[in-house]
Amino acid sequence: MTGFARAAGATGPVHWAWEVRSVNGRGLEVRVRVPNGAEAAGEVARTALQKTLTRGQCQLSLSLTKPETAARVRVNEALLAALAEAVARVPVPEGIAPATMDGLLGVRGVIESEEAESVETESLARDLAEGVVRLVADLVEARRAEGRALQEIINGHLGTLIAIIQAAEECPARKPDAVRAKLAASVASLTEAGTGLDPDRLHQEAVLLAAKADVREELDRLRAHLASAAELIAGGGAIGRRLDFLAQELGREANTLCAKANDITLSRIGLDLKAVVEQFREQVQNVE
Fold it and tell me: Is 15 within 8 Å of 65 (Cβ atoms)?
């Protein structure tokens, strides 16, 4: 779910740039930071990301830069001439100074100023929306590139887990003869110690212990979970949460196998299994 994308452009004198960063997350969270006045564009971008992505924490930002330009000043010469002519025709009462140029220039409409270049709000909004389309497409491609690399890593973990499960299947300690010999030795040591225990009762308990120590069901469930994970990966799509669930189930079965192991060799296999399951779990956190 890691990715970065940038889309930039210019609308008149305004230069704008969208940037988005995506990192791992259990769900989808989009945080938006835009300049004052651009909140509507930010919501358009947020909605686009929410419709496209399903997992990840996204940081989205917009920068707007407008170069400093001096305003253009224009003198309305026709109005100034008309004012001067009108003032010249009016008799000036005694004690009042005649009109001056700076006074006439202060009359509203004589001095006009306008921005060197203006930007239409609709044009900027349209360009920002088009930039969001490019931004989201680039982010999706970046995340897909990461996904292709992760697929190889995760498939490697699945292959390792299958090999470890096969090793558990073939572990000599799981063979009926080995289990029988170990239990027989335990029963013999108890009866020879003169503890007064009933041999028939000991035999029944030994059978129960053997049944509890059997990891056949755990191995079958582990294989089933690995098959489900392989099918999800082959099918593609938004599979991160389901892979995360399977990783939890694999970890639970690995823990049970270790707890039921009655031999040091099988215990070591179980520990190896747990280690690879944890590596698998860490990687699927990156999958959408």
Answer: yes
Least Cα distance to 213 among 270, 263, 255 occurs for: 263
Angle at alpha carbon of residue 86, lines to 83 and 87, rounded to 5°: 85
Residue 168: count of CB within 10 angstroms of its CB: 21
Spell out the residues 6+ positions from residue 152 whose beta carbon is closer than 8 angstroms to its own. Answer: none
Averages of pLDDT over each 10 residues, the chain, 288 residues? 91 92 89 91 94 92 79 77 82 77 79 59 91 95 89 94 92 65 64 60 61 79 95 88 94 91 86 95 88
Which residues contact residue 67 at a Cβ distance below 8 angstroms, ignoring those fewer than 6 apart?
Answer: 13
In whole angstroms, give the CA distance from residue 13 to residue 69.
9
Cα 176 to its chain centre, rounded Å, is 49
Spatial separation of the C-alpha atoms in residues 275 and 281, rounded to whole Å: 10
Answer for the pair 284, 157: CB distance below 8 angstroms, yes or no. Answer: no
Q: What span, in angstroms and rounded, lies between the C-alpha atoms of 212 and 224?
A: 21
